[in-house]
Design goal:
The protein is α/β, with parallel strands linked by helices. Helix content is about 40%, strand content about 15%. The chain contains 16 helices and 17 strands. The strands form 5 sheets. The chain has an 8-stranded parallel sheet with strand order 10-9-8-7-6-3-12-11, with helices on one face. The longest helix has 16 residues. The protein is globular.
């Protein structure tokens, strides 16, 4: 539906309770799949039901957890370049109740505290899958208690026994875990637990997408709305075929029973951690909603987090840092001053090289709208006038006393114009590549300024 069509069903009071200034603005956001119709508290029940069904994205948004959340789904396209992907897949670590409570607690704390920085963002894992592998209710409940006491991250509760699942939900339902899973043998009992405890439910049917759709439809008819599907994606070929087929059926054919995010277990059939990581990487790209990993090694997890970031960053919105002047390695007023753009990858490449070489420096960042050096220069956003304006705006003379500025080698052509714009300043042409900055500072800077 278009924004205007949605607007016809809204109360038109402009009450702002939805978080938008007008009903029309809210309708436009709903049409663009950037807001849920449930945000409007003034809708009549009839209008709400109609609009929720009509405006629901082909893949439903499902949330797991309470304070910290995994939000997956709400996707509208098959390919990132068509529009964008909205919700990155959750990466969770499986902990089995066959581990000792001490080992489980140690792993949970280690994973919970894991964080790395990439282009100014903190990359972390998203939660834990607690597996009742032993089949023993007491062992599973000990694991659940251990998790609750050591982390506030979202949980996936894995047990085929509904009685055991109920005991686990008594301890964790307030945190809204994912119940895994409803099968053809227990779907009624599991669906009832999902309704009683207001938790999302995984539906597992690995025989065929048709059977999965049939089982999911039964669960929907019982009243369960938040569903994660498990189609049994267990190998490279099988995974890409199944998950792509589900995505196409949901988006192109509007098959409602399959319009839900999927959960995968790449470690189930992997020969080792490396094989698991490769399959997980494929599933990040196509098209898992939650990926359960059996192994936690920072050297493997970091590339997966980076891949996920790259795929689920909106290509139309460059990641950028704030304009300003940044101290690196505790510089003084006689240390170098360099300038570059606010594109995050550029900033962190340059800052990282300066930091690693150990040379104290100031780094001036120009607001170019998140463009790289050459792109910003070609667009007229990183030229002599803009650099001089930024230098004045942030008062570079308050930081350095040598009136020397290093520009990127790729824009050496602006040297003369910048010397005119910044009268009395010595403009130095730095290296083209960030990797050469260390040698430049240690040699050329000392020769030309010190």
């Amino acid at each position: 539906m278009t924004g205007i069509e949605i607007y016809k069903y809204l109360p038109k009071t402009n009450c702002k309770k939805c978080g938008f200034p007008t009903c029309l603005a809210f309708a436009m956001k709903v049409a663009q799949k950037q807001a849920e119709i449930s945000l409007c508290p003034e809708l009549s029940p009839e209008s709400r039901q109609f609009l929720e069904e009509a405006s629901r994205p082909p893949i439903k948004l499902v949330s797991i957890g309470r304070d910290k959340k995994i939000e997956t789904g709400n996707e509208t396209v098959l390919f990132r370049h068509e529009k964008t992907f909205y919700h990155q897949p959750g990466l969770v670590i499986r902990i089995k109740d066959t581990e000792s409570p001490g080992d489980a607690a140690r792993r949970i704390r280690e994973v919970s505290s894991y964080s790395v920085q990439r282009v100014g963002l903190d990359l972390t894992l998203d939660g834990f899958a607690l597996d009742n592998e032993s089949g023993n209710p007491a062992s599973f409940l000990r694991l659940v208690e251990t998790a609750v006491n050591n982390t506030d991250m979202p949980l996936v509760l894995m047990s085929p026994d509904t009685a055991t699942m109920k005991l686990a939900l008594d301890k964790t339902a307030q945190n809204r875990p994912l119940i895994y899973s409803a099968t053809r043998d227990n779907w009624q009992d599991m669906a009832q637990l999902a309704l009683d405890y207001h938790c999302p439910l995984a539906v597992s049917e690995r025989e065929s997408p048709g059977n999965l759709a049939e089982l999911t439809e039964r669960v929907i008819q019982m009243g369960v709305e938040d569903i994660i599907t498990d189609p049994g994606a267990d190998s490279f070929g099988n995974s890409v075929d199944l998950l792509t087929q589900l995505r196409r059926l949901a988006i192109n054919k509007r098959c409602r029973p399959l319009g839900y995010p999927s959960i995968t277990f790449p470690g189930d059939h992997a020969s080792g951690p490396e094989d698991e990581a490769l399959l997980a990487a494929q599933q990040i790209a196509k098209y898992a909603g939650i990926i359960v990993l059996d192994h936690f090694y920072p050297g493997i997890v970091y590339p997966l987090l980076t891949l996920r970031l790259n795929i689920y960053t909106d290509p139309q919105k460059p990641v950028k840092v704030a304009a300003g002047i940044y101290p690196i390695n505790d510089p003084g007023n006689s240390d170098p001053l360099l300038v570059t753009t606010d594109f995050s990858l550029t900033y962190f490449s340059v800052a990282g090289e300066i930091q690693s070489c150990g040379f104290p420096s100031w780094l001036l960042i120009c607001d170019t709208g998140g463009l790289s050096v050459l792109t910003a220069w070609a667009a007229g956003k990183f030229n002599a006038r803009e650099i001089a304006k930024t230098a004045k705006q942030f008062g570079v003379n308050d930081y350095v006393n040598h009136n020397a500025l290093v520009i990127p080698g790729y824009v050496a052509v602006i040297k003369g114009a910048l010397e005119e714009e910044m009268a009395g300043w010595k403009i130095l042409v730095g290296p083209r590549e960030a990797m050469d900055i260390g040698n430049y500072l240690k040699r050329t800077w000392r020769e030309n300024v010190l």
